[in-house]
Amino acid sequence: MKEIKVGLLGFGTVGSGLAEVLLQQAERLRRKTGASIRLCRVADIRIESLPPQFKDVELVQDANLIFKDPEIDIVVELIGGIEPAKTFILKAIEHGKHVVTANKALISQHGMEIFAAAARKNVEVGFEASVGGGIPVIKALKEGLVANKILSIIGIMNGTANYILNKMTDAGMAFDEVLKEAQAKGYAEADPTYDIEGIDTAHKLVILMTMAYGMRMSLNDVSIEGISQIEPIDIDFAREFGYRIKLLAISRNHGETVEARVHPTMVPEKHLLANIGGAYNGIQFTGDMVEDILLYGQGAGKMPTGSAVTADVVDIARNILCNSVNRVPCLSYLPEEIKARGITPMESLR
User: Which CATH superfamily is domain 2-136+302-330 in?
Assistant: First the structure.
């Protein structure tokens, strides 16, 4: 039986989730691919040993031992941040490795450079887990909606912000109070700036817009406003008029220009997005063929995100086995079809 060997960079929450999924679902994945997909090496400088169930996995501190191993087929980057993640990914590609990452900041800011490097080496880059956690939103755009002109993207893409706004609405709590509770429960980071100020959501919107419209764009193209200034009185006024406040990513396709914005939005109480609770995500696409579809699920977490990373590993493994690498372009559009496009000014939308 063919064996697909995986090297992992980073054994934190998501990295350990991937390891557990590959171990727990090994037989299921074998039945679905005809191959043994095996995690064989982990690089992490922060830990001294792996849990006992991973006794057959080698732990190293030098990532080069993964890049330079000719037997490793796929390198999974789950370190996060821009550096050293970017350098590691480019090194892996240079050594002819396929790459999987959950790194939304890196893909949104440096994705084009990474995809170009991968094209030169004829390897694949998977990034399903960069948007929506366990929700297969990237695959939906790349394949399921390939026949559609995408007319709009509207979604709740950050579970921390959604949890805070839901608590403020349902329990009548103040922002600072809910934030402290969310941090105590592990729903919010010690420094929650990216989550509560909309930056995390904007990174995800950049990725989805690039894929949906075949356009070059950056974080600077997105108008961003977070939820830190939302007060209980705002929640009360919204409720009085039949709305709930949600932090939404919004993009509409106007042809020559597209909207790109993240901000608190009053959503009608009966709308599906208004009823997405807790730390869940919901992303709605409107296509000219399918009209409206809504993808809903856990937008973060060890096992949901580990599931999404595994999906990319399996996709790449199948393509290796069938000699069909790069069967589907990374961004759905062919690289030469990714064009610059105008951004609709916010003042024209008010």
Answer: NAD(P)-binding Rossmann-like Domain (3.40.50.720)
